[in-house]
């Protein structure tokens, strides 16, 4: 390694270093200087960029959310580069991984007109009764796993079941995403005993924990004809009662 520079921008951590390839890279690449960027993003695996060619290798790193961008004016074989090359930067990768570990664990909150506010982590949802739904979009079938929204609201003490009558029927829930996107549901439609609808607070898709642009949590509405109410990056459920 020749030089290294690390900086933090908001929640992202980016590290840049200049590294000279060694004998392990073979005679064709020996002595070349490679400009490498590692950035913490909401993706999993290694992504190699070179002259507009993008190749992703999923599940090969011992820690998530690492993007490796390899840029070199003469490095024409980046897309087929031996992944052992990443190992030569192990000291730097360990540093970035340690910085990642201090990031706050994602949570989803339940607040408002409930008997107790909740802040739930993935481990909390894993301990609750689990459910799954299937969605299809553009021919792609996805199986989401998580907890029914009604179960989460019930845990917070929202009026559901036999308690959902009278003034409680004017209660609604605002699903809020971390980027400010919001969707409103009536409490009645979220209660399966009243509407028979399916509303899932998902934390897994096809057996894998949610990540990336989807966020750690997603409110999935499989029966909707359009996906606009399936809130990605779900951060809170705010319960509001209009009539007191």
UniProtKB/TrEMBL annotation:
It holds the Pfam family Oxidored_molyb. Residues 107-241 form the Oxidoreductase molybdopterin-binding domain. Signal peptide: none annotated. Transmembrane segments: none annotated. It comes from the Bacteria. This is Oxidoreductase molybdopterin-binding domain-containing protein.
